[in-house]
Amino acid sequence: MAIAVGILLALVAVAVYSVTYVDRYYDHFVWQAAAFLEGRAAIRFPVEAAGGLLGNARFQDVLPIATTDGVARALLPFPPLPALVLLPFVAIWGLSVNDQAIFIALAGLDVALCWWAIGRLPVSVVVRLATTIFFAFGTVFWFSAQTTTTWYQAHIVAVGLTFLSIGVVLGADPEAADDEPDGADDDPPDEARAATEGGRYRVEPRQFLAGLLFGLAATARLTVAFGAPFYAFVGPGGLRRRVASAGLGAAIPIGILVLYNVVTTGQVLHPAYDHLYRLESVGYPSLGYHPDWAAEDPRYVPQNLGIALFGLPILAPSVLPESTSPQPTPVCVDPTDHRGLFDLACPLAVPRDTGMSVILTSPAYLLAIPVLRRYGRSRLVTGAVLAVGFIAFVNLMHFSQGWVQFGYRFSNDAAPFALILVALGFERLSTRYRWGMLGAMSLVVVSLAINLWGVMWGRLLGW
């Protein structure tokens, strides 16, 4: 029955994402996959539109490089896992492949994986279903799944792999959600002896697999790697064995990514990131970038935190949200115009293209609050809180917060860990308080309505 529900949720998600989908043209990973099929890391660039294809001359996120074969090429800064996902499709259909449709299907799979992973928590079926629906249609994942351009493709791949990883460790450690006395998580003496047979630390296979999947997720979205503390607290075995097993698994794909960077660029960290930062920090002064700061800089945290927690929509706007345009499009130019909820000519309110508050766009995340008191007592709560906190802090240090977007798209990186807290908090409210189920469901419904509004405005504004 659970499998059938998961499949149904995936099909519904794909249907909804497909209905709200708008054709867009950022397909960096298609070009990356085509380059891999040529045996190269650098894509052909710039390629002008021809033969019904748009080409890639419009791309800005590239680092042009010198070549010896007479073909102009450039490197992409993005971790390449999404391009590897596209390899077989590009091999068949070439540059005309519909990459957005492929990633919409993968986004639907992510919804099924969410259902599966949350099902391994000590929560009711109602909470499991409501949490999955909240993820699919009440968070910025919906906007990501119906946009499915380059940056969102990376989120979709990373989210799915993270759910897989979380499901593996939760299935192997059903007691992780329990409150435990201090020291209860140390390696027992008999386990420590068994784990070090022959002078070598034995790897726990399930924790290794979870680490491998988690490391793969980081090769789609680098910042996911900062959720590593979760695997120190959750999984089979004691602390040292969990850390060693998951760490070894994660080190394989992350090590391959580092090797890829070194072989293709001569540097551990891809130089295209710094190149793009230097261009964008000067080219987009209205976005509050500072050319004298680093691309990852703690001084960006206050202004980015303002977006992530307190960013509001534009009420009764006089122009459309076009932060980098010297002449934004005016609205309500006719004095007789009446403002409407989805009236592009005279809107009542529009989302900000620089981002909006996570709590405002997805208020059901507030359901995590009731279980935060168990931080330090429950391994699962402690690990999830640390994962969300570390990922969020690193993202907040980044100069860009994901413009153009609805909401705060970087929240996708921490969403799988945050949803653990949401489900546990939902369960606590619904079982301990008479009004708990109604209150929690109300937050989910409001989240769905807000994200529907955001998705529709994204279509209207061409985001």
Question: Care to describe what's here?
Answer:
With 463 residues, the protein is mainly α. 53% of the residues lie in helices and 3% in strands. The protein has a three-stranded antiparallel β-sheet with strand order 1-3-2. A two-stranded antiparallel ribbon has the order 4-5. Helix 2 packs across helix 3 and helix 6 packs across helix 7. The protein is globular and about 60 Å long. It starts with a helix and ends with a helix. The mean pLDDT is 93.
Calculate the terminal CA-CA distance, rounded to whole Å.
38 Å
SSE pattern, N- to C-terminal = HHEEEHHHHHHHHHHHEEHHHH
* Sequence of strands across the biggest β-sheet: 1-3-2
Major sheet summary line: 3 strands, antiparallel
Q: Which range does the strand content fall in?
A: under 5%
Shape annotation: globular
* Number of helices, counting only DSSP H or I runs of 4 residues or more: 17
Class by alpha and beta content: mainly alpha
The low-confidence runs, each spanning 5 or more residues with pLDDT under 50, are: none
- Please give the share of residues in helix: 40-55%
Radius of gyration: 23 Å
**Overall average pLDDT:** 93
The number of E-state strands comes to: 5
Question: How would you summarize what this structure contains?
Answer:
This protein has helices at residues 2-20, 28-37, 81-93, 99-118, 125-137, 141-147, 150-172, 189-195, 205-218, 230-233, 239-265, 271-283, 301-310, 358-361, 379-397, 415-432, 436-461; strands at 43-44, 63-65, 73-75, 314-315, 349-350. It has 463 residues and is an all-alpha fold.
